[in-house]
Amino acid sequence: MENSTQLRNWLDDMALAHPLVIAGPCSAETEDQVLKIAHELKDTDVNYFRAGIWKPRTRPGNFEGVGAIGLKWLQKVQQETGLKTATEVANRAHVELALEHGVDLLWIGARSTVSPFIVQEIADALQGTDRIVLVKNPVNPDLSLWLGAVERLHSAGIKRLGVIHRGFSTYEKTKYRNIPEWQLAIELQTRFPDLPLINDPSHISGRRDLIFDVSQTALDLNFDGLMIETHTDPDNAWSDAAQQVTPRRLVQIMKDLRIRKETDQEAEYNNKLNNLRAQIDVIDNQLIEILGRRMKIADAIGGLKKQRNVAVLQTSRWNEILGKMILEGEGHGLSEEFVLKMFKAIHQESINHQEKIINA
């Protein structure tokens, strides 16, 4: 993307004293609900009031949004609170209606980003607009697909662009609804440092009790803002109830977050150091999760060995793994001594797991 520094202008022009905050309900449900939430958010750190008007659901029969009538409610939000508004668009008709009703910020959802055809249709409908357009990552961890969507919009003359990191779908059960895969966001940030990067802790966590921790990690990694789903009665929300917080809780989250600012050389050094440490923390957490999955497989192997009355230690298999990992380690700049120590420790833990299964 040429002239990528232009992409930050819309964010820099806001001269914010804190990260950009986009907040509001997952779905617009009623006019009263939308206006009540907006009025509770108007004197907070929130910069944009978000509400889902059209809700793409995984399976038919679920609540799919109130439709175009909700855009009139967003207009009332603008008039009564002065808040700027934001909503998701998934096709040309959505774009045209949102622009007609003066929505200030549009985003393309994860299910739409996966399809270049959909993104191109939206880009054509938005051609030359001065609206801010944000692109959520695709549901699968594909950086090229994510950047491809941004490039299509940039080619359509849309200059006020940014991206939203909302995590990635996985078949494995984790504590997250969508695994963060922070390294993809970090790589995007490294390659395009002028592309504003917003984090969506609501969709990553899927649980309101994890939202603060995910938000703090995002800020430690120098994200530019947060999109947090907010509802006055989250437990009774019509969609994604578990991941929404109350306006009061949102205010508290923003107070408790540690926001690091660059004001001089020392602050810049600390900021860079904290960013690198945050990246290490992310990778360390991934290592623990991967090792945990490895030990579950070791448990399954122990069960098979118990059925066949096979010894736990298989020397030939162990020597084969060790030789392979030493070569792999060399390719990644790891010494043979380190690889030996690490895999001996992992191997011993696997043996301990299998012996527990066999001796149970």
From TrEMBL:
Q: What is its EC number?
A: 5.4.99.5
Is the keyword Coiled coil in the record?
yes
Q: Which InterPro entries match?
A: Aldolase_TIM (IPR013785), Chorismate_II_sf (IPR036263), Class-I_DAHP_synthase (IPR052899), CM_dom_sf (IPR036979), CM_II_prokaryot (IPR002701), DAHP1/KDSA (IPR006218)
**What keywords are assigned to this protein?**
Coiled coil, Transferase
Superkingdom of this protein's organism: Bacteria
Chain ranges of the Chorismate mutase domain = 267-358
Coiled-coil annotated spans: 259-286
Name the record gives this protein: chorismate mutase
Provenance organism: Robiginitalea marina
